[in-house]
């Protein structure tokens, strides 16, 4: 009777090497980093959905039956997901995204509300906006650094929707509680209530430029008109 060989066959060794390679590949990226990447991707999709919903709102809401307009931010404490407006004007140009009015996700992947800032010339429900390029009063702008003298990412920005990222600094929780403020200049720029916002690659706290993990999305006047006014009559300067 022949004895069975107690060693491994070449096929078994090959399968074992494949399994080991897969395991090593999985361990190369820590589980926490994988989860964080998924949350970033989920939040980016949430921001894109919010942007599309804001454009859809503008397409379906006309100021006094003529020009179109964008929604106002939610300024309630705690937020209720609905815009706050007074005599056609927003109570404030900055606040929480009105998720109920828009029918979008109420928070980012870290459980914090999305902030929303809109230019008043585009949110007034009595005047609205048209396709003519107006002289904007203090238009919103996107830059890659708080220290720059002029914007280098985007100008003539109409609205900005922002997630304060994994660290949540400057955000509001689901309950409306203000979280710890940012510590870096660029993240502070996204919470100081002025017209400038920062969009750049993320950096850690030990970076020379400081920590940054905010995730903004925005639309400029030309982008708004292109999406909301597909024909010249939709947003004519006359309001017709």
Report on the architecture of this protein.
- This protein has 240 residues and is α+β, with helices and mostly antiparallel strands.
- The chain has helices spanning 10-28, 31-60, 99-102, 120-123, 185-189, 221-228, and strands at 85-86, 89-90, 94-96, 115-118, 140-143, 154-163, 196-198, 215-220.
- Strands 3, 4, 5, 6, 7 and 8 form a 6-stranded mixed β-sheet that branches. It has a two-stranded antiparallel ribbon with strand order 1-2.
- The longest helix is centred in the N-terminal third of the chain and has 30 residues, at 31-60.
Structural class: alpha+beta
Distance between the first and last residues' Cα: 98 Å
Principal-axis shape equals elongated
Beta-strand content: 5-15%
Helix content: 25-40%
Number of strands: 8
Largest sheet: 6 strands, mixed
Helix-strand layout with pairing:
Elements: H1 10-28, H2 31-60, E1 85-86, E2 89-90, E3 94-96, H3 99-102, E4 115-118, H4 120-123, E5 140-143, E6 154-163, H5 185-189, E7 196-198, E8 215-220, H6 221-228
Parallel strand pairs: 5-7
Antiparallel strand pairs: 1-2, 3-4, 4-6, 5-6, 6-8
Features:
single chain, 240 residues, alpha+beta
Concise synopsis of the structure shown:
The protein is α+β, with helices and mostly antiparallel strands. The protein contains six helices and eight strands, in the order ααβββαβαββαββα.
